[in-house]
Specification:
Layout lengths: L2 E7 L3 H6 L2 H8 L3 E5 L5 H6 L4 E2 L2 E6 L9 E5 L5 E4 L4 H4 L4 E5 L7 E7 L7 H24 L1 E7 L23 H11 L5 E2 H5 L8 E2 L11 E2 L2 E5 L1 H4 L2 E6 L11 E5 L4
Parallel strand pairs: 1-2, 8-9
Antiparallel strand pairs: 1-15, 2-5, 3-4, 4-5, 6-7, 7-8, 9-13, 10-13, 11-12, 14-15
């Protein structure tokens, strides 16, 4: 039986739900769904009855700033522990990491929802993005040494030329900078993690985000910014992938991967 994992940047959880997200989640039959950019505080989630979605229990790391960032992880299975934050005062204030652990004798396994900063608004945020990459790399290495895990997230980096439509004109833009791509190459090389989608789908024109400018969506001028990053043992169980394009809940599309393990 497949274990189904979804990642989706919501660009506002209340907005996404108003566009039919809950109904889609119910039909998608996910076991866990990592969500990013929820743009809500705990009181908002309670008021909107969003702590649960289609029978899945949610765990959230909200940003301090109102209407900004924040991550969540909805799960059908009760975790043995939940870890909020990366241990960085700067980035934990922005709500960028929630980790659900599913440990039992002989197994240590985590599913993470993570939202990497965007640097597209200017030099200051790009500098913050580089600080985030420098901070999270050793954290991921430590986690890999301790347990199996899958990180579901908006990484805000297109790794290779195949991962965005207009790669030539974006080489000096945030999300496709040489330093960002080199960081991904290192993570997927000596860092020991696997870009699970690419192990299943080697084809071009596979995108998960489209700018709201121009006709990007209509013309499929997209970027692949959303990932399942997994330890090799879990990645090896991946069976099938799907980017859902029939409805739009945000400027990102849900990325679903079925794995051959159970909790």
């Amino acid at each position: 039986m497949a274990f189904r994992l979804v990642t989706l940047n919501l660009n506002g959880i209340r907005s996404a739900v108003s566009k039919g997200l809950a109904e889609w989640v119910a039909g998608a039959a996910a076991d866990c769904m990592g969500v990013q950019e929820i743009k809500a505080h705990t009181a908002d989630l309670v008021a909107g009855q969003l702590e649960r979605l289609a029978g899945l229990q949610g765990y959230f790391h909200c940003a301090q700033k109102k209407g900004y960032s924040g991550v969540g992880l909805y799960t059908r299975h009760a975790p043995s522990d939940v870890v909020m934050g990366l241990g960085s005062e700067e980035f934990d204030a922005e709500g960028r990491w929630v980790e659900t652990r599913f440990d039992k004798p002989g197994r240590r396994l985590s599913i993470v929802s993570c939202y990497f900063p965007s640097g597209s608004s200017g030099e200051e945020r790009q500098a913050a993005k580089f600080r985030f990459l420098a901070h999270i790399y050793p954290r991921l290495q430590q986690l890999r040494a301790e347990r199996e895990f899958i990180l579901l997230g908006d990484v805000n980096i297109a790794h290779k030329e195949i991962d965005l439509r207009n790669w030539k004109s974006n080489q000096k833009n945030s999300g496709f900078l040489p330093e960002e791509r080199a960081w991904m190459t290192k993570l997927l090389g000596e860092g020991g993690l696997v870009d699970v989608f690419r192990t299943l789908n080697p084809h071009p024109d596979q995108y998960t985000w489209w700018s709201n400018r121009g006709q990007a969506w209509a013309k499929n001028v997209g970027w692949r910014l959303d990932y399942h990053l997994a330890t090799p043992a879990l990645a090896a169980t991946a069976q099938r992938e799907a980017i859902y394009l029939d409805q739009r809940f945000s400027d990102h599309a849900p990325l679903t991967i079925d794995y051959g393990f159970s909790l």
